[in-house]
Structure prediction request, 620 residues.
Amino acid sequence: MLQAMRSGAKSPIMKAFLVFLAGGFALWGVGDITTGLIGGSDKAVSASEESLSPREVALEFERARRNYMPNSSTGEALQTGLLSEIVGSLSRAVIFNAENNTLGLTVTRAMQRDAVANETNFQDEMGSFSEGRFMQTLASAGISEAEYLGRVDSALKRDQLTRALVAGVVSNKAADTLLTKYELQQRVVKMQSFAVDADNIGTPSDADLDTYFSENKSSYDAPTVRSARVGFISATLIEADVDISEDMIKDAFGTRIDEFSTPETRVVRQMVFEDAKKANEARARVDQGEDFNAVAADMLNWTDTDVMLGTVTRDGLDGAIADAVFDASVNVVTGPVETLFGQHILIVDDITEGGNATLEDVRDEITRTLRSEEAIDLLYERANLLEDEIASGASLDEALGKAGGKIVTINDIDRNGLDIDGQPMVDDSEIAQESAIIEAIWTNDIGTLSVLQEASADIFFMVDVTTETEARPRTLDEVKQRAIKDWKLVQAIKSARAAADAAIANPASFDNIAASSKFRRNGLGLDHEAARLIANTAFAQANGDFDVVETGTEAIAVMTSEIIEAEQSEIDDTNKMVADIMKNAITEDVISFMAIKLSQEHDLQINIEPVRQLLVGSQQ
Prediction:
């Protein structure tokens, strides 16, 4: 664990995740005292004169979702509780901002600059501040420079407020050292693997199969199942009925031209000085013919890598820097340009012109998009038509025929969407795996057509439950092939285990086995799919001891062949990180208790419902 954290803490992604996770602690600290405070207000979060609108909270939610849950939809992220975590984190920020305003705390430009320059995510391999990394990191997170600096202000003010309170926080050094030694210890093993191969197991005799089935009969019982006819319409079904005219394609191309544009990019180098005098001196030297990188090396001790800002777009730069870079010609020095970070001297090495795609280039893409959008719009009309037809006395088949829908029969599905053998129910339309449809099958009365409901992925459906069959035991004849397959697997597992047991009964069989690489308690360092299971066994036994690890696909005879204690230098190095982690955790708890008190003093109010409505509405 410690080694993984030690490596991961150097990663900007891990650092950002830890910061985000720390924000989540605010929910636990503030949540206890916000219960009952959720009330009617046009503000999502407010404390004294500080507040955040529902839109601001929704934007922060979407930013967090894109950065930390990129494969989840807004609805899925809401279900995981992400909104509550975001509101909790923002609530604590609002509380501290309210207290900062009361006390009149300020942040100087120098404090801002030092905080940004000392942030390791923005530093290069030499530990120096890199403006290129700064801009790239903010762009990846979807945060502007001004917005980021506003957050820096809030953080610096909060540090002023809490510094005295947390100054005395320390972790227990003896406990830190014990934990470090425990986690840094490593093992080396020798292993013999025996595959679980059911294909090499012969067919069981009738007597063996009867005995096996008798001993495991309950596992073959049929669950209570229902069968139903599911009528549905979806955007996918309707797409075939959608006609896209040439005028629609041309209009969409004109409206969305920015989507098909390639922005102009420029390759830029720069020098950054603390004062204008030095910057002007550097500019003069380059103007007089000296090499740009040589001047940077002489005056700043910068390498060629330090000088390179890289390939940038106008949108990737802020303010004066963007204007200076994109108004400049190739190989012409410009500057000094003043920013928060100092005086910049810049030179553009190369320009790649932007451009727009032609209509023919993107015709197919636009047509597909329009057809999908039109189908979704038409879907709601068809849903209304379906309801009207059912209300007027039409059968499900007749109504779906007019609405352009389809009927699927799902036979013998249990409450979890599984078939009679406990496998996921499969149908050509994949309707049987829709959770809303499974729930409707099990909540509607038999023989009664359900109301029209909406499932995921732009689907409307109605369910007609036809039968229900109670749970019952099944005979061997009903499940014979499945029972034979299971019996073979059991015998194959036993055979592999017996071979592994025989290996550990003969220690000499390990003499010519190559030792593994050394690994940690979590399996880190061991190249094996079952690394964690093997590590659990290796660390649970003494040096020279044996045991068997079963994975379901193999039985592994494991001998612990070496126990490696951590070097003192590694213990000392890692111990500091452990102490920092423990200190930070205690500090967060202290700050959370402070937030509880301040939330009462500044009358913290939370109104989460408007935020939820904005987010849900954005999915329509």
Summary: The CA atoms of residues 235 and 375 lie 5 Å apart. DSSP finds 23 helices and 16 strands in the chain. Confidence is low (pLDDT under 50) at residues 1-41. The longest strand covers residues 342-352.
